Amino acid sequence: MKALQRTLAIIAFLVLAAQTVRHAYLLWLEPRASVLDQYDQPLKDKIAGAASVDELLRRYDLARKEVEQAKKEQPRTAEQYGVFESEPYRSEHQLREAITNWEAGSKEIHALRFYWLTGLVFLILGVLIYRKLNRWFGVTLLIVAFSELIYWTSPTFLGPATREFDRLLANKFVFSAVSLVLLIAVIWFQRIFADEDRRSV
Fold first, then answer.
1. Would you say residue 201 lies in a domain?
2. CA distance 65 to 71
3. What's the predicted TM-score (pTM) here?
4. Which of 134, 159, 186, 192 could serve as a FRET partner for 65 with CA atoms 20 to 30 Å apart?
5. Which domain holds residue 87?
6. Does residue 196 lie in a domain region?
């Protein structure tokens, strides 16, 4: 059993350490500017600086009214040919996408917190059952626990530069770092890497 525990502990440590470092990089070190930003920066700045989805929604309402007016003036241009590169269609499309991304980020934060806490419950049960009742069942619960902790703190690969995306990254960084500390604590208290054959003199 020790060999299995050691193997799983090493794999879990490698994954959690790597993704915690990646979250830190994305939060504080990754360059976010582009040389192309100068061409459409005003709207991108407004989207990135939005403090809430309601602020984006107010901007979207204005852009939507402009789109409705443009459709009345040129009804066939946008609908028939799908022209979204000209204003006001472009702004309306970007704001709609920003709202969709914001809502997706909020849902992911909610799921992250719920499933991470679920993993924590499995972790506590696993440690207690491992020590008091049955080692194999305890190890099984610990595997379930760390699978939840690792999966839900795994990296988000795509996301716009918005406050909600930064909030998601910050949540993932914190929960990933705490998961790493919990893993180290389990390794320490369960004495997974202790040499059982060594005898004290």
1. no
2. 10
3. 0.80
4. 159
5. 2-30+37-189
6. no
